[in-house]
Amino acid sequence: MTGSMERVGGLAAWAPDRVPPRGVDLSPRQELACAVRHLDIAGFSENMTGHVSWQRPGRDTLLVNPWGFWWREVRAADVIGVDLDGAVVAGSWDVTPAIHIHTELHRRRPEARVVVHSHPIHASVLAAVPELPEIVHQNSSILADEMTVVGDYDGEVDSPVLGAALAEAIGDATVALLVSHGVIVTAPTMAEAVYKSVLFERTCEMHLRLRSIGEGATPIAPRFQSQLKASLIERAAPAYWDGAIRQLVAHEPDVLEEGS
Ligand SMILES: [Zn+2]
Fold this sequence. Notes:
Layout: H1 28-41, E1 51-54, E2 61-64, E3 80-83, E4 88-90, H2 100-108, E5 114-118, H3 121-128, E6 147-150, H4 160-170, E7 175-178, E8 182-187, H5 190-212, H6 222-251
Parallel strand pairs: 6-7
Antiparallel strand pairs: 1-2, 1-5, 2-3, 3-4, 5-8, 7-8
Helix pairs in contact: 1-5, 1-6, 2-4, 3-5, 5-6
The structure holds zinc ion.
């Protein structure tokens, strides 16, 4: 019995009493380094390309991974600080001009405190078409009404002007598939940004597998998409992120190193 009424999801439907602890207190640099490495493990990065940027509330600078390090090897000590004009203001390394993809989104979108950009393989295949994935699975509902395609390819985004044009093309979308390039995901928190990024790449892979067997996805009614979306953002994202940090720190404790 599915009914036609709106279905409540998220913490309003159920809130856990006991949540496994993260197990470690992280500095912002440590948390960003964990995000970069975890996204690589989850198949989101293309070795060293792209950035995870984080403009914490009240700050006029971003934390970001530097140029030249593969995502898999970034430590907290490698994370740099960058101002909104793209200049490095803290840390030992450079950032590429592609940081303007991030600065211009942070400037325009108050809720986009975390911006993730890379070229994961399944998203990049769909970006080549370009074609957005269907909502192929209940957990793809986190993407419902969030995605857009930027269909004009304009070469490397290496200036504030090009970054601004891209941000305008993205508009209010929190997931943007860039033709012949990759994907941008934005979110208010690191937990949501990481989880949504992983689910987007997984959704693209499922979409492509369905295509390969000549099938499309069975539609999920919008009211269930909103129910699931609330649960995925409010309940699953924080638990996912804490679990990812626990496993990463257990297996790769050097990610937390803050000294050079
Ligand atoms: Zn890129």
